[in-house]
């Protein structure tokens, strides 16, 4: 069962923010995408937003638990997301089946980070894109962020640097690694990582 802190946090407006998804979608062409995977379903708001933003695609969303999911509150697109209870290091999905894999404020608390990248690379079609939005480990807020997460949410939390993520991507066989930040907020704590399946 989710902790009291997690349940309270999940109700905050920031937990429902779709800006991180919109920034990512503005910088990658998914107009022909048929199947998109989100890792970290949470309450389901991100997957629901993706189903509206990509009405032609089927969105799949995995999480280690579905206890926080609020399907009755979700406004979805024409193809409602398919929610799957699973762990990111062992995705129950076919190889080369996804056009994109998206992780928004999720990767920092996942176990087996290299295996997560390996699994993302496995399920991506050739030319498919991995999109990761998370806290930049170089930012001054990274350490306080980790302390709070360790105390209340997950002892696994680690704010990764772009260099660490680049190594994980390279070892997974992903290419064209790039990091982006919002214009005018280059010193902000959020970064977006994009890389492509070979």
Salient structural properties:
198 residues; Rossmann fold; alpha/beta; 6 helices; 25% strand; seven-stranded mixed beta sheet; globular; single chain
The CATH class label is Alpha Beta
- Sheet with most strands: 7 strands, mixed
Counting DSSP E segments of at least 2 residues, the number of strands comes to: 7
Instruction: Report, as a whole number of angstroms, the end-to-end distance.
Output: 39 Å
Give the helix level as a range of percent: 25-40%
Cα-atom radius of gyration: 16 Å
Structural domains: how many: 1
Q: What layout of secondary structure does this protein have?
A:
Blueprint: H1 4-10, H2 19-25, E1 35-39, H3 45-53, E2 58-63, E3 82-85, E4 98-104, H4 113-123, E5 124-135, H5 142-152, H6 162-171, E6 174-180, E7 190-197
Parallel strand pairs: 1-2, 1-4, 2-3, 4-5
Antiparallel strand pairs: 5-7, 6-7
């Amino acid at each position: 069962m989710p902790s009291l802190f997690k349940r309270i946090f999940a109700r905050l407006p920031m937990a429902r923010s779709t800006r991180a998804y919109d920034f990512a979608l503005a910088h990658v062409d998914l107009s022909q995408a048929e199947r998109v995977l989100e890792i970290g379903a949470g309450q389901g708001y991100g997957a629901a937003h993706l189903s509206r933003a990509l009405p032609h695609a089927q969105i799949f969303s995995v999480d280690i638990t579905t206890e926080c999911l609020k399907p009755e509150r979700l406004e979805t697109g024409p193809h409602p997301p398919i929610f799957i209870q699973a762990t990111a290091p062992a995705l129950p999905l076919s190889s080369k089946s996804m056009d994109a894999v998206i992780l928004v404020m999720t990767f920092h608390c996942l176990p087996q980070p290299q295996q997560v990248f390996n699994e993302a690379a496995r399920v991506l079609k050739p030319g498919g894109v991995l999109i990761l939005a998370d806290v930049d480990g170089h930012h001054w807020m990274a350490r306080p962020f980790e302390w709070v997460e360790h105390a209340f949410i997950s002892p696994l939390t680690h704010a990764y640097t772009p260099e660490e993520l680049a190594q994980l991507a390279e070892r997974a066989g992903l290419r064209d690694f790039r990091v982006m930040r919002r214009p005018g907020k280059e010193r902000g704590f959020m970064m977006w990582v994009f890389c492509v399946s070979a």
